[in-house]
Each structure stands twice: as C-alpha cells, then as structure tokens.
Amino acid sequence: MAEPVILYLVMPCYNEEEVLRMSSGKALDLYARLIDNGTISSDSRILFSDDGSKDRTWEIITELHAENETFCGIRLSKNRGHQIAIYSGMVYAAEHGAECVITIDADLQQDIEAVPRFLQKYAEGCDIVYGVRDSRDTDSLFKKTTATMYYKFMRSLGCDLIEQSADYRLLSNRAVKALASYKENNLFIRGLVPEMGFKSDIVYFHVKEREAGSSKYTLKKMVSLALNGITSFSIQPIRLVGLLGVGVLIVSVVMMIVTLIDHIRGVTVAGWSTIVISIWFLGSIQLISLGVIGEYVGRTYMETKNRPRYFISDETGDGK
C-alpha cells in the first residue's frame, strides 16, 4: 500500500467572505475522509491564497486557522490577479513540504469530490493532472461561445492548451518547482504547465452553480487573461499584421490599375467618396496594426523590468 501523500489544497481568494465558511467545511470533510482511508497524510493542509481582498476574507482565514491547523493562509500585499494568487499559493505549498498541490477556486463550483481521482492519477506516476470540464451547461451562451473560440484560436497559434481545462489541476512538487523557474511576469499558467512536458493525465469534473456571492472573475479579467495567453505564447498576431499589410498592398495595386483603365477610357469619377473611404480604411488598418505591435512592445517592456511578481504581507503559518 502506498504511503499517504502530503497534499496542499490551494484556494485562491478575492473578496470571498460569503462562501469561505461553506467551502472550508466541505474541504475539511473531504480531508477527514482522505486521512481516514490513508490516501493523504495528516500533515496535509488547506491553503488559502488571499489576493489582497477588501472584505473580511483574511479575517475568516485567520479564524479558520485558529480553529483548526489544517487550514493555513497567505495574504498578498495587494491584488495581483487570479494567476498570481494561484502561483503564490503553489510555490508556498511546495516550499512547506507539499508532495503535491491541487488548485481549486474558493467558491468550489469545481467539484471538490474529484480530488481523489486527481490523487489516483498522481499515485500512478503523473506529475500533472488537468481538470477538464465535462460540460459548460452553467455558462452563459456568450461565455460558452467565446471560450470555445478562444481555445481553438490558441491551438491554431501553436499553443498546446488542454481544451476546456480549468485552473483546477494537480502538480507534483517537482512540477511546481519547474513552473517557478519560468520568470515572466505576465503569467498564463494554463499555457506554461503543458509546456513543461511532465507525464500528465486528465480528470473530468462537473461545474456546479455558485451557492453564494457572485463571481469575481469579470469580463475585463477574462479578456486580460486571454491577451496574456496570446502574447505569451505566439508571435502569430504580428505576422498576421504583416500579411494584412501585404493584402492591403495588393488591393491598392488593383485599385491603381482600375483607376488607370478608367482614366484611359475617359470615365469621369467624382473621387471624393473613394478618397475618404480609402483614408478611413487605411487609417483603421494602421491603428489596429499599431495596437497589436504595441501589446507586444508593452509586455516586453514590463518583462525587462524584472520586478517581483508579488509580496506576501501576512501568513498564518502552515500549522506544523
């Protein structure tokens, strides 16, 4: 029989006071069952990574830790975003003795009862286990459509994304340390994890309706994550700008030939509308092109600063 594994369940939190007590109860109940059946060690912990919450989230985390040392937490000095909250929690867990780490959203919409299946894959030798949605029934039509289009678009750009995967995954200690060796500030963990190439597998899980509060993952944050993914893993958009320029050049040559033929035939053309349309068209192409190039230049500029990704302002300790 395999030795019980030291598992850290990492929950990124941002203004989650409404669901934290409920989520912690479900997680603790699962841990009790897993410890009883010898799957995980009693040294395992449930780690909350507070992304600079403005409500009582951190107070609740410290209360939970005082009630039961299975709970522990870190608090970032300011809001750094969902990806940094996940990353900081994983790194902290790996540094404090975790043999494997599972990340799951604090609202537990991702089915926590899938955790034993993640651990089974880990016991079979996987360093990475991806949580993949079995459906998107709980999403709006807009989110479902845009998510599907985004995954297909990223794969067309050469990024090896696991389709319909979420930030619900297991990483072994060495996989977390490998992830920490990537130095870019604009983290896109869903793209970096497949890049590492360790043995991996998939666990399918069901997404439930949120039981309390509202999602803190706004459209703005989703767009930001999408842009991080595109600019971190592909230069295809810049190449597309070049191809667009070639296309516009071809259209311009055709228009020149048509204009020359009209001139030879003596056809009178008013001209002003064509000129105005051409100016607006070419102007919009130039602005779009500058915007795409600007995204890459801006992100390159931020990376060259090599600033720290985050600072931990408070921690409860790991209970050991």
If you compute it from the alpha carbons, what radius of gyration comes out, rounded to the nearest whole angstrom?
25 Å
Which architecture of the largest domain would the CATH scheme give at its second level?
Alpha-Beta Complex
* First and last CA, distance: 25 Å
Low-confidence stretches: none
Description:
With 320 residues, the protein is an alpha/beta fold. The chain folds into 2 domains: 7-233 and 309-315, Spore Coat Polysaccharide Biosynthesis Protein SpsA, Chain A (Alpha-Beta Complex), CATH 3.90.550; 236-305. 51% of the residues lie in helices and 15% in strands. It contains 10 helices and 8 strands. The chain has an 8-stranded mixed β-sheet with strand order 7-5-6-4-1-2-3-8, with helices on both faces. β2, α2 (57-67) and β3 form a beta-alpha-beta unit. α9 (236-265) runs antiparallel to α10 (272-305). The longest helix has 34 residues, at 272-305. It is elongated.
List keywords for this structure.
320 residues; alpha/beta; Spore Coat Polysaccharide Biosynthesis Protein SpsA, Chain A; 8-stranded mixed β-sheet; 10 helices; 8 strands; 51% helix; elongated
